[in-house]
Amino acid sequence: MTVKEYLLERMKKGTIHLTLLDPDKQPVEDAANIARKAEEAGTDAIMIGGSTDVTQDNLSATASAIKKACGLPTIYFPSGANAISEKCDAIFFMSMVNSTSIDWVIGEQVKGSLITKKLGLEPISMGYIIVEPGMKVGEVGKARPVKRDNIKEAMAYALACEYLGMNFVYLEAGSGADRPVPPEMITAVKQILSVPLIVGGGIRTPEAAEAARIAGADAVVTGTFVERCSDNCELMKVIKASKG
């Protein structure tokens, strides 16, 4: 079974939870420990990546440690083609569709396509939409974030991604955002799509995770919260709320 098939099968049962770990934010041993705890709490897969300072070395080391610590698929959440590693099981081959720089819309993807093929890494196409506030990823990606009240624009971007043949659409408020993607935006985008919708950024409480799930997210992503959470019970509550 491919990673894409695995995710889709899980989504048939309801909303899934994805844990995002930045290889630059903690030693590999800590990343492995976090992944193991997240697996025990019910997360469905581990995304590895960050907006800055991700290298092939720290990505490979982190992915290898995580795969030894837990049995979940590892997916590279790319910051660029330079860090692509065969140690991951798959790569979200994604386009930041509301970037003002062609590098993030298609340039890095062109650089990474032959590398991905050579390494035998499974590519999973994704339309990546930055929503206000956008945070560091929006800054680095030179995005023009969708305004929180501009639901029609979010719908248009998402549907364009589907029409371009992308397997998933991702609404991203940015790691560490003080506000997650608005539930009404999630609902509107979900209603117009026939491909799965992933939502992340600013989700750090059970209430926020539940709101995203109820609004229609097929997958809820938590990153900063998971990395900083020292309370296993709180971690379990957020993951459980994401999955219902």
The average pLDDT is 94
Q: Which structural category fits the helices and strands?
A: alpha/beta
Count of DSSP strands: 8
Percentage of residues in strands: 15-25%
Strands ordered across the widest β-sheet: 1-2-3-4-5-6-7-8
Globally, the shape reads globular
Order of helices and strands: HEHEHEEHEHHEHEHEHH
Radius of gyration: 16 Å
The major sheet is characterized as: 8 strands, parallel, barrel
Assembly state of the chains shown: single chain
Flag low-confidence runs: none
Name the helicity range. 40-55%
What features would you highlight for this structure?
244 residues; alpha/beta; 8-stranded parallel β-barrel; 8 strands; 17% strand; globular
